[in-house]
Specification:
This protein is mainly alpha-helical. It has helices spanning about 10-30, 35-45, 50-60, 65-75, 80-90, 110-135, 140-160, and strands at about 65, 95-100, 105-110. Strand 2 (about 95-100) and strand 3 form a beta hairpin. It starts with 7 loop residues before the first helix and ends with a helix.
Length: about 160
């Protein structure tokens, strides 16, 4: 009987893990794509790009952020955010205000119209995803809930490790 080479086992396990990560990444990409149809509809209905939608959603969660904080939150360059904010201000979806305690800081806020756009998108997306999730049985839904919580924790750890 031939004894397995001990050094081959870790390499094989590493290859299997790499393959699994690739498969999970593909599944994740497909899952994220579930709401692409809604995004495309929002782009055509409201004339918004995906980065602009993300910016609006970020302000909905944390209204009043300055450009630097928005850029950090979205993982892009501040000059990129400035261009998007400029367009959203022209569309009446975002307004800028000087910070009362430090006039060098300009804060960005959703306007009522901006809040309405984000509210509609969240409602439509929530209904769409809920309709999909209703098709899972209790065990599947519990597994997905745990897996998504794990994914969000890992993403938060990765963001903090990059800082």
């Amino acid at each position: 009987m031939v004894q397995p080479n001990v050094t081959q086992a870790p390499a094989r396990a590493q290859d299997e893990r790499h393959d699994q990560i690739r498969r999970v990444a593909l599944e994740y990409g497909q899952a994220v794509g579930i709401i692409d149809a809604l995004r495309i509809q929002a782009w055509s209905d409201d004339g918004l790009t995906l980065p602009q939608l993300r910016l609006l959603w970020t302000l909905r969660d944390d209204d009043g952020l300055p450009v630097g904080a928005l850029a950090e939150e979205m993982g892009v360059n501040p000059s990129t955010i400035t261009g998007h904010v400029d367009r959203l201000v022209r569309q009446g979806l975002v307004r800028r205000e000087e910070d009362a305690s430090d006039r060098r800081i300009v804060r960005n806020y959703l306007t009522e119209e901006g809040m309405a756009v984000v509210g509609v998108m969240r409602r439509v997306a929530g209904e769409y995803v809920s309709n999909i999730l209703k098709r899972l049985d209790d065990a599947q839904l519990s597994r997905l809930e745990r897996a998504l919580a794990d994914l969000n924790r890992a993403a938060a750890e990765a963001r903090h490790a990059e800082l």
